[in-house]
């Protein structure tokens, strides 16, 4: 059976809906994300980063901000905002 590719940015909007619309608990969301990262049917290219961020998200923080920060660190990149001159 082919594995389903899931890009980490796909979680961001879904997490926002779960938190804001459905008022789901952060621990419930983190448990689900951990379960998804363990499922062999899914392929997450940044799985180690996602797993690390889920642990951080469980305690505090915005998932999207945490994932961007971790990806930036791993890739030795620099975070720039749209207001930062190039």
Topology of this structure?
Blueprint: E1 4-5, H1 9-20, H2 26-38, E2 42-43, H3 47-59, H4 63-74
Parallel strand pairs: 1-2
Helix pairs in contact: 2-3, 3-4
Briefly summarize what is shown.
With 86 residues, this protein is mostly helical. The chain has one domain (4-74).
Outline the structure in words.
- The protein has four helices and two strands.
- It has a two-stranded parallel ribbon.
- Helix 2 runs antiparallel to helix 3.
- The termini are far apart.
Task: Work out the radius of gyration.
Answer: 14 Å
Mean pLDDT: 88
Q: DSSP strand (E) fraction?
A: under 5%
> What distance lies between the first and last C-alpha atoms, to the nearest angstrom?
45 Å
The poorly predicted ranges are none
Largest sheet: 2 strands, parallel
Features:
86 residues, mainly alpha, two-stranded parallel sheet, 4 helices, 5% strand, globular
